């Protein structure tokens, strides 16, 4: 509890409050002590009463630190990343949901491969060299 006493502010701890047991009106912020009891509050000498001048250190930022600082990106909120027409499906873009498979349904089926089957490495559709390069770059970044 913070208590205003003239120009001074004070934080009263639970042991002090239990010992003195004042009546506190939390709505008005007033505290009343029992009339027969005399309370003496000593002036508190805190760490901030005396201070020393600051010690300034001249330090230079390394180029690598500057580059790292420039590379830091601000993480955008999911609402900013999803187009407005897909906002109704926002829950499907959240990390936990996006990493899960959909629930099993009655019409789901398995594709069983033969045990000795080895898939061939072939292109499913022809791409120009520029398209192939872009696709390879995309797959390298995202897989």
TrEMBL record:
InterPro entries: DNA/RNA_pol_sf, Peptidase_aspartic_dom_sf, RTL1-rel. Gene3D superfamilies: Acid Proteases. The keyword Ribonucleoprotein does not apply. The keyword Transferase applies. Keywords: Nucleotidyltransferase, RNA-directed DNA polymerase, Transferase. One of its GO terms (molecular function) is RNA-directed DNA polymerase activity. This is Putative reverse transcriptase-rnase h-integrase. It comes from Moniliophthora roreri (Frosty pod rot fungus).
């Amino acid at each position: 509890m913070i208590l205003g006493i003239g120009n001074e502010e004070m934080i009263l701890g639970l042991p002090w409050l239990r010992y003195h047991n004042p009546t506190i009106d939390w709505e008005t912020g007033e505290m009343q002590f029992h009339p027969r009891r005399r309370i003496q509050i000593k002036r508190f000498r805190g760490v901030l009463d005396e201070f020393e001048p600051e010690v300034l250190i001249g330090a230079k930022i390394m180029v690598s630190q500057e580059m790292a600082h420039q590379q830091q990106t601000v993480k955008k909120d999911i609402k900013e990343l999803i187009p407005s027409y897909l906002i109704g499906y926002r829950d499907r873009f959240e990390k936990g949901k996006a990493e899960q498979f959909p629930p099993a349904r009655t019409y789901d089926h398995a594709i069983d491969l033969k045990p000795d089957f080895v898939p061939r490495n072939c292109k499913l559709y022809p791409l120009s060299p520029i398209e192939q390069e872009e696709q390879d770059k995309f797959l390298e970044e995202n897989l």
